[in-house]
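pasting for the record
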Amino acid sequence: MSGTFSNMDGIDGGPLMQSELQARKALGKPIDMPCLKIVLGCLVGFAVGILVAPSGGEIVEAGKPTLCYWPTVAGRGELARLIAVAGGLEIEEVGECSNKASYGSPELLPVLSHGRLKIAQSTAIEDYLAHIAPNWKDLTAAQHAVDSMFMSIKEDVLRGVVQIYHGNESHDRYAPHFQKWFSVIEGRLPDAGFINGHSHPTPADLAVTMMFYSRGPFQYCFNMTGHPLKYPKEFPKMNALTELTVAHPRLSAYLNRSKSFWGRHPPKPEDMHRVNTTASGK
C-alpha cells in the first residue's frame, strides 16, 4: 500500500509522525506500509491523549486513583475522600500498602497511586484529586490556590491537635489552639455562600467542614476543651458554611454511610441529626 503526500499534508499527529512524513516528502518517497503503521500509531496515541485530557489539555492517568489510608479513621485521609465525593471522582480505597518509600513516605499514611503516579503527603494528594475531579474542571488558578490554602490550614490545625494529644499535654492547650486558627478562618469566610463563590462546595469548604464537624480528631478534641457547644456560636460563619456544605446532596449521602467521618459506623443519631435537619431544610 502506497500513496502520495497530497492528501496527508493537513494532518498533525505529533512530532514522530511529522518527522517521518517530512523526510519522505523531501526524498520524494511514497508512503509504504511501515510508514503507514507509524502514522496510524501516532494518530491513535494522539486520539487517546484527547480522550483522557481535561479541559486544560493535561494528560490524566487512566483508571481510578487508589487512596491508602485507615478505613475507619478521618485524620489526614478524610479530606481526600470528601474531595472525591464532592468532586464527582471515583476512587478506590485500601487500608494498607507496602513499600511506602516508593510513594515518598518512610512509613506514614496517606499515600495515593494513579497509574504510574505515586505520591505521599495529604495536601499533595488532596490538591491532585481536586485538579482531576470533573466537577471542578472550570476552577481558576486563583480558586485552586484558595482551596490549597485551606487544605494547608487544615493540616496546621490537625498537626497542633496531634502534638497536644500524643504529647500528653494538658487539655487546656486545645482551646487556645482552636481559638487561634478558627479566628483566622472566620475572618476569611464570606458572609454567605461557598468560599469560591460557586453554587457547590470546593475543597476549601470541605476543609472547613472537616475541621468543624468530623469526629476524629476534631470533635473529640472539642469535647476535651470542656466547652464543645460554644464553637458554633463563637464562629457563626464557620458554622453556617459547614451546614451549607453538609446539606449538599453528595455530601449528605456520603455522611449517612461514612465509616470514617464519624469514627464509628453506623453513625449514631446525634451524629446525623444536624446533617439530616440541614439537608431537609428544617
